[in-house]
Amino acid sequence: MSDRYTKSRTLTEQSAKSIAGGAVLLDRRIDPPIVFVRALGNRLWDADGNEYTDFHAAFASHILGHNHPEVNAAVSKAMESGWSLMSSGATEWDMRLAELLRACVPSMERVQFTSSGNEAVAQAIRLSRAWTGRDDIIVTLGGYNGWNNDVAQAMMPDPETIGPRQNSGEYQFPQTSAGIPETVRNQVHVVNFNDVASVEEIMRRYPTACVITEPVLHNVGVIPPQPGYLTTLRKLCDQYGALLVFDEVKSGFRTTLAGYQSVVGIKPDLSVFGKTIANGYPLGVVGGRASVMALLDSPDPAWSVRLIGSYNAHPFTAAAAIATLEILQRDDIALYQRLEALGSRLQKGLELIFDELGVEATISRVGSAFCVYFCDHVPVDWHDLMSHHNFDLDRVYRRALIERGLYLFPQPCRQGSLSAAHTREDITRFIEASRAILKGFRNKSVAGK
Ligand SMILES: Cc1ncc(COP(=O)(O)O)c(C=O)c1O
Asked: Cα–Cα distance between 122 and 116 in angstroms, integer?
């Protein structure tokens, strides 16, 4: 039998001899074991010479497409101009980047930089604890906010660990890793997305430092907030003296330049951004109320929060981020309108096919982020998703798309992402490929559960 991935398989096996687990970041391990060697714009190429249109965008990082010429040119220019890791005092590029971010996201009165979203989340939680003098935090079931002990919950927790839905209350912390102290787990309270009753119950029971949540639950695809959910979170935080932290690492610059918070008109106390900010270069940002951010410079050791990191806002990353934000700012309306038009075309095309073929499937979309759920509605939380989505069909669908040269991450419920590099033709191919795949499924009667 011919194998499209012969070289990829060999490289993957070789990799496992030196890299623990066989891939950098075990979450990247995939089946089929494709090894990508090159990317440009909306295209990927693997070691066997196969070409793909990319809808994965490195877990939603590339809003402008891979290796965007202007972003790369900005990085090269920074190198040629002598930008370097100074690790001493302020720099013009840090300043420029901070000014751009503040101009884009009004709730970020002050910002600070890290090298990843994970570190920025850790700082947001630490700031919340320092500000409130409390230890307990609330996180979202089925969410992902990085791998710090406080938030290291399983990406897709299994039903046995979680147990059935509760009317109001918390779920056992579904730890994704050994080595997380029990004391930490006990102070992290896990509730379903869109469940304000549980948030209020926890806040009544425990002095809560913060609620940290993605405003759109992207870790398990695209689960939008129910009307009123985020507004109520805001009110509860005010009422109980907790901080509201939006993790916009994925939702950030996907819908607008001002973050998803601007779409819903909610001002969080702190926000975390990453990924798209630098179009794939490594950067994390934490920002928010000036009074809270001032703790990073408090003269009182009892209040002072330390944020350190050798590579924070590395000059080449800063150059990439400045260029990305300038492009987004310059083209703001046109770019987001174009992404919305592409997204809407994809959504309508797929909805027609689901109807035409009688396949039980729904596409959920927020701006340039989308996910197909094989059930009759967009899930509202992890329990809804676990009990209604057809995971097997999702896996087969993604695999079949990949075989046709359309790359979605081959694990169920992973968000698909459009970028400025996509074209109407890419969308048409995606729709037509979906039609062919789902027709085949129906003929083989595997669309049912
Ligand atoms: C919502 C969210 N928060 C935080 C993180 C962690 O960011 P990073 O991988 O840059 O550390 C991620 C990464 O996927 C994420 O999706």
From this structure: 10
